[in-house]
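Cast an eye over my tokenised protein here and flag anything odd:

===
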Amino acid sequence: MKTPISNLAGVVALSGLIASGSASFAQTDPAAKAYKIVKTTQTMGTGGIDYVYADNDNRRLYVPRGSQILVFDLDSLNPAGSITNTRARGVAVDPKAQHGFSSSSPVVMWDAKTLETIKTIEVQGRPDGILFEPLTERIYVFSHSEPNATVIDGKDGTVVGTIDLGGAPEQGASDGKGNLYVCIEDKDNIAVVDVKTLKVTAHYDLAGKGGGPAGLGFDAKNRVLFAMCHEPQTCVVLNADDGKILATLPIGRGTDGGGFNPNSMEAFSSQGDGTLTIISRGS
């Protein structure tokens, strides 16, 4: 799902700040912690922007837009190059092999240091979300149509296999220990994938607490998933090991991306209404 924006960073409003103890979640004052925009820059080209990706190792920011992927210096936001001739929805980088990949058809593979294209990889479906899975060092390209996931070796770009996720996937998250969690937007559940066998081992149903999950954050320390949902505008918090629903929290309208910062113990949902929801897991 695409949220068109004209700037690399726009006005951000905090739609909520939620705090929790070890066993419960409770809403607290949004003013308890301040966030502010520190820098903005104007992108080049035309078209909407979907998944923005930060390559921390190489200090680069990838912004897919139109028929190219714009690349910026992550610290200064100055232009650093581009990946051309690819109408991508997102980017993932294998930090060990130093190879970048686009969620496009075909997938473009490039050298993450020089930005030079290495090869293109034919895939089926309609590529959308994408991620790097660290345990197997593979790239997962998600598609709303079959095959729902195409798995690519991060070292040489060969297609390892495909996975039927049982519905239309959006964002995913890996626990780094063999499990991959994927939002299944049209089925209102979270698919659990064994990354070694490439098999779905479970579907965690959201039980009517949230519909159309699109963004996903994962707290590896506490084994907690944060599923950001469209209708109602809710974050459904689940136990990553058994799918038990722990809490539901309000978020903004039009979520299309989520994440979790283990340093601050906060989950994030970016929304099409121009807001950013921040959820604090607590210590």
